[in-house]
Structure formats: C-alpha cells, structure tokens
Specification:
This is Gnk2-homologous domain-containing protein. Keywords: Repeat, Secreted, Signal. By secondary structure, the chain is an alpha+beta fold. The protein has 2 domains: 2-25 and 136-232, Gnk2 domain, C-X8-C-X2-C motif (Killer Toxin P4, Chain A), CATH 3.30.430; 29-126, Killer Toxin P4, Chain A. Helices cover 30% and strands 29% of the residues. The protein is built from 4 helices and 11 strands; from the N terminus they run E-E-H-E-E-H-E-E-E-H-E-E-H-E-E. The chain has helices spanning 45-64, 86-103, 147-167, 197-208, and strands at 9-12, 29-33, 66-71, 74-80, 110-114, 117-122, 135-139, 172-180, 183-191, 218-223, 226-232. The strands form 2 sheets. It has a 6-stranded antiparallel β-sheet, covered by helices on one side. The protein has a 5-stranded antiparallel β-sheet with strand order 2-5-6-4-3, with helices on one face. Helix 1 (45-64) packs antiparallel against helix 2 (86-103) and helix 3 (147-167) packs antiparallel against helix 4.
C-alpha cells in the first residue's frame, strides 16, 4: 500500500494483548447488552432451543475460534480473540454463554464480551448482517503525551489492520506501529466470520473512524459484529 511506505508497521498474526483499562472495568468481563425487548417463558420451545444452541456454539467455536448455528428460531455465534489458545477459547465461550443468559434472563437476544471472546444469540437470523445496534467503548483514563501524533499513528495502524482483517479468512489482524523511539502501539481488529470481506471492512472502519478517543493509550471498541483494540507496548 503506497500510502504507508514510510510507516514502520509490523503486521503479526499473534501477540498477547492485555489492556490496562479503567479500574471500574472488570478484568475479564467487558460488557453486555440485552438486544431484544421480547422475553421467553421457562420451559417453552425457545428456551429448549436456546439450551441446545448454547452447547452447540461451545462445540463449534473451540477448534477454529469461531462458530455459528441455528436451532429452530434461535440463532447464535461465538467468537474468540484471534490470539488465544483453543483451551482458553472454550473456557471463555462456555462462561460467556452462561453469563449472557443470566444477565439477560428470559430475553430473546443478548451479546456479551469477555477479554478472550464474545457470545451472541437472537431470535432472528442476523448472519451476514452488520450489527450496529450496540457499541461498548472502553478506554484507558490516560491520554498520550503527544495526543495529536499518537492519534494519527494509532489511526494509521488500525486502518491498515482493518484492511488486513477484511481479507483474512479468520477476519482477524494484529500488528504494531512506532509513535516515536519510546512508544509503540499494539493494535488488533476482528470481525465475526459471517461477514463478507466488504462488510467486515465497513464495520471496522465505522468503529475506527467515528470520532473515537484514539488519543488514549489503550482502548477497546466492542460491537455486535466487529471489535477494535489497541494499547501501548510496555
């Protein structure tokens, strides 16, 4: 990409990504949303289908880090961060599926995000569609010393990673960029794999370029279809 020839960007497939977020944010559970106002009754076919779906998503997600399925009128997916182990993926997805149903008890739709994964279900088939209904923004309380330069370099990195993730079969990319001789930013972009390459890029670009606080030294933008993360290298 000619416009980035003067930028030292190292694209990498895997790296450990740990964000030091605001103290009020739980170290593991990052957020959730009950995305359907309709409820179901205990013992109804919807609950039985949701029980089956939750177990099926656990099973399908572990091998590759992504799984999607439908059981009757329930539809769901599980997505693990692209740099976590199969064991950590399964542990996270299992926990996320249980917690999503607790936090949105009786609700016909929910999405929850953890450090290592996200889990989502709904009573409507949402596969292949960008979900713009919910966004969770988490950021470090500290600004970069040179906010203008940091934001510029961070934006450059995340936009490159957006392009990389959109053409990856895993819909995932990670990398880093130097701000100055003392500061390097790690970044990560990821989409759910039901999205096309075009829609993945559209989803990520929407997250990155929608007036988000990219001058913060760490942050996450979590959505129903794509996630963006960055932090400074310690």
């Amino acid at each position: 990409m000619a416009s980035f020839t003067n930028i030292s960007i190292c694209l990498i497939s895997l790296f450990t990504f740990t964000l030091f977020l605001h103290a009020s944010v739980a170290a593991d559970h990052l957020g959730y949303s009950c995305i359907n106002q309709q409820n179901f009754t205990v013992g109804t076919p919807y609950e039985l289908n949701l029980n089956k779906l939750t177990g099926l998503i656990d099973y399908l997600t572990q091998p590759s880090g992504y799984g999607q399925a439908s059981v009757g009128d329930t539809h769901g997916l599980g997505l693990c961060r692209g740099d976590v182990s199969s064991f950590d993926c399964l542990t996270c997805i299992t926990k996320a599926g249980i917690e999503a149903r607790k936090l949105c008890s009786g609700n016909k739709g929910a999405v929850t995000w953890y450090d290592y994964c996200m889990f989502k279900y709904l009573d409507q088939n949402f596969f292949g569609q960008i979900d713009t209904s919910v966004t969770v923004l988490l950021s470090n309380v500290n600004n970069a010393t040179n906010q203008t330069l940091f934001k510029q370099r961070n934006s450059e990195l995340l936009n490159v990673l957006s392009a990389q993730a959109s053409i990856s079969l895993e819909r995932y990319a990670g990398g880093e960029i130097a701000v100055d001789e003392n500061t390097t930013i790690h970044g990560l972009t990821q989409c759910t794999r039901d999205l096309s390459s075009y829609d993945c890029r559209k989803c990520l670009d929407g997250q990155i370029n929608s007036n988000k606080p990219l001058e913060k030294i760490g942050g996450r933008i979590l959505g129903g279809s794509c996630n963006v993360m960055w932090e400074i290298k310690s």
